[in-house]
Amino acid sequence: MTMFIKKFVMMAVMFVFFTFIPEVVQATSRDTIHKIDQFIEEQQNISKIPGLSLIIVDKSETVYQKSFGFADTETKTPVTSDTLFELGSTSKAFTGLAILQLEKQGLLKRSDDVRKYIPWLTLTFNGEEQVITIQQLLSHTSGIPSNSITRIPESTADNALELTVKTLLDQQLNRKPGSSFEYATINYDVLGLVIEQVSKQPFDRYIQQKILQPIGMNESFVGIHQVHSSKMASGYKIGLMKEQPYIPPVYRGNIPAGYVISNANDIARWLKLQLGNSSIYSISNHVIQESHTPDQTVEPFDTNTYYANGWAIVEKDKKPYIYHAGENPTFTSYFIMQPDEQIGVAILANMNTSFTTAIGQGVMDIWEGKTVQGQHVSSYQKLDKIVTIISAFVIVISIIFCYLLFKIAQRFYKKQREVATLNYKRIFLISVHIVIVALLMAAIFIVPNIVGLNWTFIKVWAPTSITVLLYSTIMASSLYLLLGLSLTVTKKNI
Question: % helix / strand / coil in the chain, to the nearest 5?
């Protein structure tokens, strides 16, 4: 009798488990997905991102893959899982993996001086030549200044990578190599040139053949010059408080650091490979794990956060996370993985905005059952709003100046004003107006250089409202000078 009762209870428990528990799990999953959908739609509306793709992998499965918005707002072409996006700096992980592959083949060592492969790359700190290792380039401890990005040349040439690296020759290092962290995107362009020298083939071809194809990322490209597809999303950036289409210059010499191009389908494969749950075994899992090993020879660059080989590694709530953000002038991406639970989230967007990172982190929080912390505030959006308001004010002032100039011209035509005889007072006033405008123009063009920037870089990377403000200020200054000169060199005809 007792055995019968035990068997009955066991059968009842099994019945409840297999009948009701899956439904509860499925309901929970549906609720989580609904929260994610709602979260993304809200954030997309706030951020003004035209289109994005989101991927979530859990263990070896793609559990969520969905696209939102438009690949092109003019044609209303929707984003799909095939839509191509520039990855930005999440491209660095491909370059880092390639270096580790070459090391495994015995073709280089991370402890090698970079000059073993690029003999002419001699860089100095405080006037003294320095040894920079491959590992220091990988972990951004080379001492190369972060603002070296402003000197990357526009180029579509086959030797663009070499041209980019050569810009370092007339730049001093910011710190002694190996002493501390300083993120400089060009570190990975130097690594790209090392890959070319070691593999004896162009960087883009090596990555295509040795990384992308073995993984099955057959819809991905290494640089915009490889893309011959109608599936490429149009790029946007914020300006005048809305998304603005923008075609930036081509920086072929910056491909290893920021210009791998991919879509949701292929990035799902990339995440699975990184988490060690892919059926793709052509790239050693040991090499993948090595690429996640942080450099702890220097202080963390953020709270509990160290840099690895194209990845940042952070410990939160006693759990490790592997992540990286990517930002190009008109595209952004964000990848984050929790290796213990084998969860990965990736988001691709066709606008330059910090919201992409915030959305990706928020999705990871929701998937893990956490509460998303606060509403993200984009510094680009705040700047754009302020600059847009100032631009509107400057344009209004310009219109007023135009009206006043018109009235002076009209009075001069009607003989109500005449040319005045120049005297010391009038010459002084003319000089004052010229000096005021000259000082303003000098400030406009010199101040960016003082903070390590230049207007070419600003116009490419900053909100389009900055360019509007620049030209409207130049216009207002010119009109102010014309108005001042008109009032000074003429007088009322009595």
Answer: 50, 20, 30
